[in-house]
Structure formats: structure tokens, C-alpha cells
Write a structure and sequence with these properties.
Helix content is 68%, strand content 0%. The chain has two domains: 193 residues, Hypothetical protein af1432; 78 residues, no CATH class. The protein has 280 residues and is an all-alpha fold. It has 17 helices and no strands. Helix 8 packs across helix 14.
């Protein structure tokens, strides 16, 4: 990527709306390793809208917890402070989505793809034996992996519309047609967004490599979940191409993509629950 292009990309990312003050404060506080959970909880609970949205995600069927969480304090105890912070940023990011744009990029179809990828990524992380923290963060990775597309739909709609059309008509991966029409792709934009938002290195690297060779088990779960969501046509993130699983992922789960999908059973409930969540 040419330096001028990178400068332009940084400029586009900087144009993205700022998080609500409560989320900005959460990010600021959690950057201090000495911060207490009580301080974080107080900031979130002072924002009733944020509180409701976080609890809605945690208690939704597609997130997959076995018990109801009825307070932010309980959420911190049950799933960890870092996950609550990441969920706060995720629901704030979802709130940035506009219902319409000049690229004709469907926000609801995009969000359905993101939510189903998130739920499947979490299931795969559990199957891979990752920690509870990593399993929860796998959900966040699924939600945010494609958010670079939101930057293009908002600020470069005409070029993005052309990239979407060529990807669809010629069955070429969207991140490649974006390079042709925009000079950068949503992976690069999403990585910059993740860095701007102060996400963990684990999440940043998973987003950075979700169309390449994953660097660890966490990234492998996201990569596989993304392909499964596309293969089953859950929503539409604008990319029609289902990429083959790298050998490392086939080895990790002991099966190729089609068998892995079959082993997960009926995923229709994941779509249904995600659709219910998307509704106002």
C-alpha cells in the first residue's frame, strides 16, 4: 500500500463517529491496569442505553450463555472486565450503522452476517478448548471483523458500490475488488479501526488476518466462522466467495469445511435469534 493511500485510509477512519462519552471513558479507564472493576461498572451503569444493549447481547440466545445476567456487575464477574469492555465497544460500533447509504450496502444483511459469524466463532472457540475469555472475545471478533466495510460504505460509496458489483458478478473476493476500485481494502480499514478503538492485540491480529493465514487458534476460529456464515448464506457481508480452510484449520478441527458445518448441527436458530436481536 502506497504511503499516500495509507494516509487517506487513516483520514477515512478518523472520520468515523466517536464512541459515546461513556464508551470512551470505559476505553480510557481500562487502559490503566490499576483500574477497579467498580469504576468501570459505574461508568456503564450511568448510561442506561449502553447498559440495556450490553445485557441484551449477553442474554441473547445467539451469545450462548446458560444463565441470565441481570446486571453489569454480574456480567463483569461472570465473563470478565475485558469482555464487558469489548462488548461495550461492539454495541457502540453497531450503533454507528446507518440504515441506508449510497453504496446500497444493506446494514441489516451486513449485521446478520456479523452476528452469525460471531456466534459461530464463539462455538468454534469453545470446541477448540480456548479460555472463557478468548471464547467471549471470539464473539466480539466475529461482530467486528468486517467493520472496515462500514468506512467505505459511508465515505467512499461510489467506489465501494463498484467493488461490490464486480465481486458479485465475477465471483471475486471483495477485498481484492476493493483494492482495484479503492486502492485499499476493508481488512486494512478494519485493522486501523480496531487499533483506534483500543482493542486487544489478539482481536487486532484476528481482524488483520481474517482473509489471510490466521496466526493462532483464535484467528482460525474467526476465519472458519466467516466461511461457514457465507457458505450458509447467513446475511450478506458483500463477499460471495467462500475461501477454503487452510490446512491448519482442517487439522485443528479434524475435518474440512462441509464436515465442520455438518458437525455444528442445525444453525437455523442462530439466524433466528440474530434476526430477533437486529429488530428494534
Amino acid at each position: 500500500m502506497a504511503p499516500s493511500d495509507h494516509t487517506e485510509l487513516v483520514s477515512l477512519v478518523e472520520k468515523m463517529p466517536a464512541f459515546p462519552k461513556s464508551v470512551q471513558r470505559v476505553v480510557q479507564l481500562t487502559s490503566n491496569i490499576e483500574v477497579s472493576a467498580k469504576e468501570i461498572v459505574q461508568v456503564i451503569e450511568c448510561d442506561p442505553v449502553l447498559t440495556v444493549k450490553i445485557l441484551k447481547v449477553i442474554n441473547s440466545a445467539f451469545y450462548g450463555l446458560s444463565q441470565k445476567i441481570n446486571s453489569v456487575q454480574r456480567a463483569v464477574v461472570h465473563i470478565g472486565l475485558n469482555t464487558v469492555k469489548n462488548l461495550a465497544m461492539s454495541v457502540a460500533a453497531i450503533g454507528m450503522l446507518k440504515t441506508s447509504n449510497k453504496a446500497n450496502f444493506s446494514a441489516n444483511a451486513f449485521l446478520l452476517h456479523a452476528l452469525t459469524t460471531a456466534a459461530i466463532s464463539r462455538r468454534l472457540a469453545e470446541r477448540a478448548g480456548l479460555s472463557q475469555q478468548e471464547c467471549s472475545d471470539s464473539f466480539v471478533a466475529g461482530l467486528l471483523h468486517d467493520f472496515g466495510k462500514v468506512v467505505f460504505a459511508e465515505f467512499m460509496p461510489e467506489q465501494f458500490k463498484l467493488a461490490l458489483a464486480k465481486s458479485r458478478e465475477d465471483n471475486i473476493s471483495l477485498h481484492l475488488t476493493e483494492l482495484e476500485f479503492i486502492g485499499m481494502n476493508h481488512v486494512e480499514a478494519g485493522t486501523l479501526l480496531a487499533e483506534k478503538w483500543g482493542l486487544s492485540e489478539l482481536l487486532i491480529e484476528a481482524i488483520r488476518h481474517h482473509h489471510g493465514q490466521p496466526v493462532d487458534a483464535f484467528g482460525e476460529c474467526l476465519f472458519a466462522a466467516n466461511q461457514i456464515s457465507k457458505q450458509l448464506h447467513f446475511g450478506n457481508g458483500g463477499n460471495p466467495v467462500v475461501e477454503p480452510l487452510p490446512e491448519a484449520i482442517v487439522t485443528r478441527f479434524g475435518m474440512p469445511l462441509e464436515a465442520l458445518i455438518e458437525s455444528l448441527g442445525n444453525l437455523g436458530s442462530v439466524v433466528k435469534d440474530a434476526e430477533l436481536f437486529i429488530r428494534p
